[in-house]
């Protein structure tokens, strides 16, 4: 099963999801890992599937963790999987080889896609929820499981989303300022090289 995983900015993913929620007149809750328990519980007969180690990188044997953002829809299904944070025992947060993060994200998304929730009995109108799950892949190096998990911990998901939104807006504003400056310089150059009209050759 090939599940689409967004490796792009978390804020972009959330803005899309928030727009979808707004269209349905339902505000999207942003909740830290483990914080969904106040409104959600596992659906009947469902277990939290865990990802398998990607076979394409099994020979490396790195210990890896990924924090995967995901949405819980009002019907309890999961979607909108995105890589939020990642770490590996070989290169810390740097991707050792092309396709590395994609492989671990894909494995995580396939597990998350099997998760299903239901609202708690007292919740009459479940809201779309955006949260994060930390997935760990134990390698050959004997990394401590708790220590590995902590490498991908996100203390405040809402703050992280806000930071990424602000960063995105700042970058957008900076690009616009650069574009405006470039246009102004182009106009100055054109003015400087325009031929003088009305002159005569003598």
From TrEMBL:
Database matches in Gene3D superfamilies: 3.30.1150.10
Organism: Luteimonas gilva
Sorted UniProt keywords: Signal
Protein name: TonB C-terminal domain-containing protein
Record carries keyword Metal-binding: no
Domain of life: Bacteria
Cleaved signal peptide residues: 1-22
Biased composition (Polar residues): 165-179
Region (Disordered): 165-202
């Amino acid at each position: 099963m090939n599940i689409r995983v967004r490796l792009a900015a978390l804020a972009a993913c959330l803005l899309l999801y928030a727009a979808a929620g707004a269209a349905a007149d339902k505000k999207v809750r942003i909740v830290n890992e483990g914080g969904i328990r106040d409104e959600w519980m596992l659906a009947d007969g469902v277990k939290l599937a865990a990802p398998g180690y990607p076979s394409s990188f099994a020979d490396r044997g790195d210990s890896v963790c990924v924090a995967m953002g995901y949405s819980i829809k009002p019907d309890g299904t999961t979607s909108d999987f995105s890589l939020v944070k990642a770490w590996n025992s070989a290169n810390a947060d740097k991707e050792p080889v092309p396709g590395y993060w994609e492989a671990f994200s894909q494995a995580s998304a396939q597990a998350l896609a099997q998760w299903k929730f239901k609202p708690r009995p007292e919740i009459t109108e479940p809201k779309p929820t955006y949260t994060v799950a930390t997935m760990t892949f134990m390698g050959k190096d004997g990394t401590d499981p708790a220590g590995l998990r902590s490498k991908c911990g996100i203390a405040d998901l809402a703050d992280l989303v806000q930071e990424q939104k602000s960063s995105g807006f700042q970058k957008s504003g900076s690009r616009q300022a650069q574009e405006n400056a470039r246009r102004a310089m182009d106009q100055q150059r054109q003015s400087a090289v325009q031929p003088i009209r009305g002159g005569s050759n003598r």
